[in-house]
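Lab channel / #folding
Pinned by the channel admin:
"Please post every new chain as: sequence first, then the structure tokens as a reply. Keep commentary short and put observations after the output so the thread stays searchable."

First post following the new format, from NK:
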Amino acid sequence: MVATRASVGDTLRTVGTALAPVAARGVIVRRPWVMAAAERMDADHRLVRTLQRLRARYGPAPLRLRVPGRSVVLVLDAADVDDVLARSPEPFATATPEKRGALAHFQPGNVLISHGADRADRRRFTESVLEPERPLHHLAEPMVGVVRQEAADLLGHHGLLDWDTLATTWMRIVRRVVLGDSARDDAELTELLARLRGAANWSLAHPGRPRLRAEFLDRLRERLATADPGSLGAVVTETPVTARTRPVEQVPQWLFAFDPAGIATFRALALLATHPAELDAARSELAGHGPDAPRDLPGLRAAVLESVRLWPTTPAILRETTTPTELGGRTLPARTLVVVLTPFFHRDDQRLPDADRFAPQLWRDGGPPTGLVPFSAGPAICPGRSVVQFVASTFLAAVLEHHDVRLDAGPPLGPERPLPGTLDPYRLRFTVTRR
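Reply from TO:
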């Protein structure tokens, strides 16, 4: 059976209230003014309501939108989300034209936009460096030192913490973790990547900046050649490669992915600052350990995961069918774009009792419900997920262990009310005081 087609009106409503707002916020780098507008409109709650209405009208099977010149299917069932991700990258390829058009601006040979033998080789290399199956990377000890040192410097100079202040410290941490201490103050490298990501927001509509990309990759190549011991860059130089690997083009994704990780960490701090019971539980796991010892902190990891569940940093997961493929009892033609809008599955209050609550227990009580995919899932799951969660939870520990944090700016948050569907991180501000 072929996928049911949405009406023209429902397609337009879906584009207007779900797809366009997600794209407008910036798929590759966030646009702060759009994020502010999205928070005022509570955009992701509107997205959830739109998809709930589609599911009620057409059923939970994949729904084909009426998009001229492109076969586009919207996933409406959580079980189908897991199925699509479990069968990636074949027949649900990660390298969609839309994704290639965006990421090729700064990493044309990256694993995310590769397929077949190229992808297999680059995935092997990436996993060898990032060690996604280990909660504590073998470089966890130097990572802890970096995070705690930068957090101490931040807290020693600032009693007020806003996004701009946090972002400066966060990117220093990222450069040191990825490339070593010598790259700490290389803000120009980060700025080059930011400019390329800005162009990538427009995907195929932007002609690209090949000279800027070459300058960025040359600078990154030089940094990797001299990466300090104890950094991921040093591991890159020690990891076997082939002619397919293109190791330099795998690294920009790590720098890029740490940016939304900073947003998730900042939002997690807002959640913990406004939920006393969860904050006390998280602090309890900090007791009895040396401050510089690498620690798996499941409570703080759960807070980070909840931040990404409540406000996904990857709001749209895209796949493209490589052959005619069955999904949810429907046959999808080859080259169908399959769209998973994660805010819908993460905040579907018709399916999740705690959809609009801070519920870190979701990540500790036998695993999350079907359809919760903060770092994707299946064979193409984010290979940096463990490193990101470790760095984020270690940073939160460094802030919360000896400091009280009060949220001074942003929407009202707390256990007494449903959490907003959209949270603009750029207007959050905290007062931090020594305990």
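NK: The mean pLDDT is 95.
TO: also worth noting, The longest helix spans residues 251-273.
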